[in-house]
């Protein structure tokens, strides 16, 4: 499979850190508000990245994955 592609709009990100909890191998908070992320995480992170994108309260995360909805 092809690795996941993702982009985070850092101007929109408010540092809620839901992504850090859901995909800690992809997203990291540096300090209280600076988000660092892997723009090309491994395919094994696909589900976690999808969940992180869906959980972002300000929709700052864009991926090439379908949006994850609980129960689907």
TrEMBL record:
User: Which cofactor does this sequence's record say it needs?
Assistant: [3Fe-4S] cluster
Q: Which UniProt keywords apply?
A: 3Fe-4S, Electron transport, Iron, Iron-sulfur, Metal-binding, Transport
Q: Which Pfam families does the record associate with it?
A: Fer4_13
Segments spanning the bilayer are none
**InterPro entries, from UniProt?**
3Fe4S_ferredoxin, Fe-S_cluster_ET
SUPFAM superfamilies xref list:
4Fe-4S ferredoxins (SSF54862)
What the protein does comes down to:
Ferredoxins are iron-sulfur proteins that transfer electrons in a wide variety of metabolic reactions.
UniProt-recorded name of the protein: Ferredoxin
This chain's source organism reads Rhodococcus pseudokoreensis
In the record, what lineage is assigned to the organism producing the protein?
Bacteria, Bacillati, Actinomycetota, Actinomycetes, Mycobacteriales
């Amino acid at each position: 499979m092809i690795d996941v592609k993702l982009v985070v709009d850092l101007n929109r990100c408010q540092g809620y850190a839901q992504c850090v909890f859901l995909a800690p191998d992809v997203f990291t908070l540096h300090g209280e508000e600076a988000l660092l992320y892997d723009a090309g995480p491994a395919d094994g992170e696909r589900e976690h990245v999808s969940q992180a994108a869906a959980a972002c309260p300000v929709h700052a995360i864009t991926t090439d994955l379908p949006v994850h909805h609980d129960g689907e």
